[in-house]
Automatic annotation (TrEMBL):
Protein name: histidine kinase
Boundaries of every Response regulatory domain copy: 540-656, 693-804
Subcellular location: Membrane
Keyword field: Coiled coil, Kinase, Membrane, Phosphoprotein, Transferase, Transmembrane, Transmembrane helix
């Protein structure tokens, strides 16, 4: 038996050594083979790529000059490389410019289409394509293909590796024989002793130690283990009795835990329901925030586009008053623009980003004021019943947005009743107690004004009512609704710190209840601008708008209303105009402005310079500049984009009228006439006795535009350029009375320009304008005048009068 055991261990040892050596050698050989193949492939591809780069460099001039002969000669140089089989130069359109092939058969291998840049290995060949660039664009493709003798290289590597493998296995067999003689014999002796101990089950036996090497250490360790095993066998019996006792105690504890779990199931179910409800509220909040970010991101630009479209449509309607067909088409386009504006407004309302102007409002008065509007919107087949309780409280809400909510809900009710039924509007004081708000998120207990809108329509099933407030959810057919009416109402109510609920039953109708918090302030009646006349005026309005298309439309509107209009494209340009001293009655600015000077800062400085100036903001999306907590800051006036011409006219006249009532001194005269069309003549500007022809040279575009407008206001002829070189070109074509130039100009300075102009025309008056003081010496024969920056309109007018008198 021992011989068999010895023989088995020896075989295993030999096989183990051989298999380990063989495995390691195979892995090493495979790795070396892969690395050699890769190095060969990379080296051959890099060499071919370098050859292609050289070919592309020397051939590109020939390609650019269409010299086929030179390109062909360059390609023939590749005959020195016997492994290169084909090469070609392609034009950018894919046509063949020049080519080379080792044999006629190889010529047929050339690509028919324009090869892509890079390398391709296929069929025992490797091809490299290199782009030839001219000014960053592809001027052509250099293509080279060569033989790729990879298999021959692999066979050579395999022969070398096979020899290494055989030699290594012979050495491993010799090493295994030595290990067999040195290690296996002592191990077999230890195995025989262990077998005896196990068969007798006598842990007091000890194995005799015959060597002092590692096997002797193993014998000592084994004898020590036998002593520990004997001691642990005794301890095991004692621990078994202890474990029996512990198991009995554990069973009792598990029974107690089971009883506790049974009592906790009910509490876990309640907690789970609360968590599910919280998660649903969180998902709704995240959905609302996502839509808010989307609408906020697009509303500004979208409303700017709508403003340009709607404004120009209104101007065209006035210009084409005698063309019925054009009027019909313009009305259709205006209706579509209004729908787009309403859609944007509803999205902002749902996302709670619509700028509200809440005041203490009596909703009963709002309903009575909407009676005619509701009857026209719902039709004669719908009966309207309004029930208003006595002693109705006021609520803090935006009355105009509240009207939109009521109108949208009424139209939804009309559609649910298919245009025939009864709509009931009820107003009552209500109290929401702690028990009610316990199950309603974002609702505080307290006193509310309740508005209930009920219809006799088809009603909604529970699954529809649960999604009714989701944006774009609608049960109407395509084209009959956007699914934003209830969403807009939801957003408005939540932004107003209120509460909204739907009660509906299929076949019995729907009731929507809106709760708005009670206000302790007295009612504030806002002027009804809807039916106010569209009046113009003669005041001066500064328009600050970065969108040039919107700016041009607004300027046309205001000029058509009779106002004198100044314009700026950013906050810095607006401040430059205000600092010039031009009288400005109103600052009309977009909320979102580019540049370092924001619209709020422009308004603040405008109020400091001109305390009586009116400020009117406009925007398609106000962000947080003038709106905080969903409400406009106190004292801020805003007209949201897109706005109609009549809305803008009424809003401006409202502000000027309020200023007139607030100040004892009357404001500039108001034209109590209907606003004129854009094509009508403007009020005449002040004309000097001797109008001057003035050339303005100023590199800052805003300053140049502002100065040109001031000169036009003073009645002079103006042309402006941004450099001295442009001024000289213009002077060669046209004569001017005055040259008004800045000192510092790009390229030629203003002083050098003045010297050239004075040498050509000694009669031309020269005015220097700068913020760095007058030049110490000009070298001019004539004495120039100086206009320091910043200057006022009076200073400019006085200086020009001095020029005229000379």
């Amino acid at each position: 038996m021992f011989g068999a055991v010895k023989q088995s261990i020896s075989r295993k040892l030999v096989l183990g050594v051989l298999m380990t050596t063989l495995s390691a050698l195979l892995v090493a050989c495979a790795t070396m083979l892969a690395l050699d193949v890769r190095n060969y492939q990379t080296g051959w591809a890099d060499d071919l790529r370098a050859q292609a780069d050289i070919l592309a460099t020397v051939t590109q001039p020939a390609l650019e000059f269409n010299d086929t002969k030179v390109a062909q000669e360059n390609l023939l140089q590749l005959r020195a490389r016997p492994l290169i089989v084909t090469a070609a130069i392609y034009r950018p359109d894919g046509s063949l410019f020049a080519w080379y092939s080792k044999t006629p058969e190889d010529a047929r291998k050339l690509p028919k289409a324009l090869p892509r840049e890079g390398r391709v290995i296929a069929g025992g060949e490797i091809a490299v394509s290199v782009r030839m660039l001219r000014n960053g664009e592809t001027a052509g493709i250099a293509y080279i293909a060569a033989e790729y003798p990879l298999m021959a290289q692999v066979k050579r590597y395999l022969g070398i590796l096979a020899a290494v493998l055989v030699g290594s296995l012979l050495i491993a067999m010799l090493m295994s024989s030595w290990l067999q003689a040195a290690i296996i014999k002592p191990v077999l002796a230890l195995t025989e002793a262990v077998d005896q101990v196990i068969r007798r089950r006598d842990f007091s036996m000890r194995v005799p130690k015959t060597t002092e090497d590692e096997v002797g250490v193993l014998v000592d360790a084994f004898n020590g283990m036998l002593g520990e095993v004997g001691e642990r066998a005794k301890a095991l019996e004692a621990s078994h009795a202890q474990m029996q006792h512990e198991m009995e105690e554990r069973i009792a504890a598990e029974e107690a835990v089971r009883e506790l779990n049974n009592s906790l199931e009910a509490r876990i179910r309640e907690r789970t329901a609360e968590l599910e409800k919280t998660h649903a509220q969180l998902r709704q909040s995240q959905k609302l925030e996502a839509i808010g970010q989307l609408t906020g991101g697009v509303a500004h630009d979208f409303n700017n586009v709508l403003q340009v479209i709607a404004g120009n449509l209104q101007l065209l309607q006035m210009s084409l008053a005698g063309n019925p067909e054009a009027q019909r088409r313009l009305e259709s386009a205006a209706f579509a623009a209004d729908r787009g504006a309403k859609l944007s407004s509803q999205l902002l309302a749902f996302a709670r980003r619509h700028p509200l102007q809440p005041v203490a409002t009596n909703i009963g008065r709002v309903l009575r004021g909407m009676d005619d509007l509701l009857r026209r919107a719902l039709g004669e087949s719908v009966q309207i019943e309004t029930v208003v309780a006595g002693g109705l409280w006021t609520t803090m809400a935006d009355p105009h947005q509240l009207e939109n909510v009521i109108l949208n809900l009424a139209i939804n009710a009309r559609d649910a009743m298919k245009g025939d039924g009864r709509l009931t509007l009820e107003l009552n004081n209500a109290m929401l107690d702690d028990h009610y708000v316990l199950h309603e998120p974002e609702v505080a207990a307290g006193q509310y004004v309740m508005l209930a809108i009920s219809d006799t329509g088809c009603g909604m099933p529970p699954e529809v009512a649960a999604r009714a407030f989701e944006p774009f959810f609608t049960t109407k057919r395509e084209g009959e609704g956007t699914g934003l009416g209830l969403s807009m109402a939801y957003g408005f109510v939540k932004q107003s710190n209120g509460h909204i609920r739907i009660y509906s039953e299929v076949g019995s109708g729907t009731t929507i209840k809106i709760y708005l918090p009670r206000s302790m302030q007295p009612e504030v009646e806002l002027p009804n601008l809807r039916n106010a006349p569209v009046l113009g005026g003669s005041e001066t309005i500064l328009v600050v708008e970065d969108d040039l298309a919107v700016q041009a439309t607004v300027v046309d509107m205001l000029q058509g209303l009779g106002y004198r209009v100044l314009k700026a494209s950013d906050g810095q340009g607006a401040l430059t105009i205000l600092q010039s001293g031009v009288p400005v009655d109103m600052l009309f600015t977009d909320v979102v402005m580019p540049g370092p000077v924001r619209s709020i800062e422009v308004a603040r400085q405008a109020k400091q310079m001109l305390p009586a100036i009116e400020v009117l903001f406009t925007s398609g999306y106000t962000q947080n500049a003038i709106v905080h907590g969903g409400r406009l800051d106190p004292g801020v006036e805003l007209i949201s984009k897109p706005y109609r011409r009549d809305e803008l006219a009424r809003k401006i006249r409202q502000l000027f009228t309020a200023r007139k009532e607030a100040h004892a001194a009357p404001p500039p005269a108001v034209q109590a006439v209907q606003a004129k069309a854009p094509g009508e003549a403007e009020a005449p500007l002040p004309v000097p006795e001797v109008p001057l022809s003035i050339l303005v040279v100023e590199d800052n575009q805003d300053a140049r535009s502002m100065l040109s407008e001031l000169l036009l206001i003073l009645g002079h002829g103006v042309e402006g350029v941004g450099s001295a070189e442009q001024a000289l070109e213009l002077l060669a074509q046209k004569e001017f009375d005055v040259l008004l130039t800045d000192h510092s100009l790009p390229g030629m300075s203003g002083l050098e320009l003045a010297r050239i102009v004075a040498a050509r025309d000694s009669q031309m008056k020269i005015i220097f304008s700068s913020g760095y003081g007058a030049p110490e010496s000009t070298g001019l024969e004539v004495k120039p005048l100086f206009l320091p920056k910043p200057f006022t309109l009076a200073a400019l007018q006085s200086l020009l009068e001095e020029v005229s008198s000379v």
